[in-house]
Design a protein that fits this description.
The protein contains 7 helices and 6 strands, in the order E-H-E-H-E-H-E-H-H-E-E-H-H. With 194 residues, the protein is of the alpha/beta class. It has a 6-stranded parallel sheet with strand order 3-2-1-4-5-6, with helices on both faces.
């Protein structure tokens, strides 16, 4: 059975920290592949006026990952009812791909919110969860359920918010995002679009 990590996010935009984390998870043998599931709408986040249209975020994610082995851009949630509840996504993925075991990949900040997730108990019962560390979100791994793993990965300091801010301020972003998407990120997040 293929072990597939489900790494969901707005990827607004995708950046080098996202990719470095996914590569690290593959090196740790967490999964055979990681799917970057571009989310159209997060029900636990307020509307973000800086959130680009789905098609543009998908375009950049796909372009950024096209030469990455075992890292796949995935638009599966675009075809599901909104808002994008992770439980619905996992149920639909399991039905569509019965040859895969899905591992949910979330940040420590989302683990704090996990009790508020739709059908969180069912997710916990049926899917392994891998938590990656985030600044300011300390987790005691001795308190985690057996199906949940706290990953020992670096804390990548780059953020999509920082990338968008640097674009607005006319500062360089070449070290923050994959070279293939630098021009698109500058174009899409320029002050004229906001």
């Amino acid at each position: 059975m293929i072990r597939t990590g489900i790494y969901g996010g707005s990827f607004n935009p995708i950046h080098n920290g996202h990719i470095a984390l996914a590569r690290q998870m593959l090196r740790m043998n967490l999964a055979d592949e990681i799917w970057f599931v571009v989310s159209p709408m997060n029900p636990l986040k307020e509307h973000n006026p800086e959130l680009l249209p789905d098609a543009l975020r998908w375009e950049m994610t796909k372009l950024a990952l096209e030469d990455e082995r075992d890292l796949v851009a995935c638009d599966f949630e675009f075809h599901l009812p909104k808002p994008s509840y992770t439980w619905n996504t996992l149920q639909a993925l399991s039905k569509a791909y019965p040859d895969r075991q899905f591992v949910l990949v979330i940040g420590a900040d989302n683990w704090y919110l996990f009790p508020r997730w739709y059908h969180h108990d069912d997710i916990l019962s049926h899917y392994p969860i891998a938590i990656y560390p985030r600044e300011g979100c300390e987790i005691d791994k001795t308190t985690l359920p057996d199906s949940v793993t706290l990953l020992d990965t670096p804390r990548y300091r780059v953020s999509s918010t920082e990338v968008r801010r640097r674009v607005r301020e006319g500062k360089p972003i070449r070290r923050l995002v994959p070279l293939k998407v630098v021009d698109k990120v500058k174009e899409y997040y320029s002050i004229q679009r906001l």
